[in-house]
Design goal:
With 133 residues, this protein is of the alpha+beta class. It has a domain at 48-133. It has 2 helices and 5 strands. Strands 3-4-5 form a 3-stranded antiparallel beta sheet, with helices on one face. The radius of gyration is 20 Å and the shape is elongated.
Length: 133
């Protein structure tokens, strides 16, 4: 017996700006910040760790009501129904913002300060130990 997984992915390319979402959001770390972090870490012999959150976009909470039309597995007794999403899906234009807001809230609650110029840089001073996220 084989196990199969189902993944619901939204068709983000069908979303219309102003109708299905308010704005496009793509936050990328500044190259200057990455260079500075690598340079400082070499000089001060910092330990660097990289994490990859495989399900990052599935962990963002939506601040607006988003509905998707089911494709492929429609209940015959409710052929015209749609799904209301509580969390972001892959392909959804709102997914990057939802993830960024959630991870920002978590890091700020842990004592990190968000960078002024680079909004993807978070810094925490914990009893003389510098932590950068």
């Amino acid at each position: 017996m084989t196990k199969t997984k189902a993944r619901l992915v939204s068709l983000g390319y069908t979303q219309v700006e102003g109708l299905d979402f308010d704005e496009i959001f793509t936050l990328v770390a500044r190259l200057e910040s990455i260079r500075l972090l690598l340079g400082v870490s070499c000089i001060l012999k910092f330990k660097l760790f990289k994490i990859d959150v495989k399900s990052a976009f599935l962990n963002g909470y939506l601040n607006e009501e988003v509905y998707v039309e089911p494709k492929g597995f429609v209940d015959p007794s409710f052929p015209n129904h749609v799904y209301r999403l509580k969390k972001a899906l892959y392909g959804l234009k709102q997914a990057p913002r939802a993830w960024y807001e959630r991870v920002t809230q978590f890091l700020v609650n842990q004592g990190y300060r968000k960078g002024g110029t680079d909004k993807t840089l978070f810094v925490k001073d914990d009893n003389g130990r510098l932590m950068i996220a």
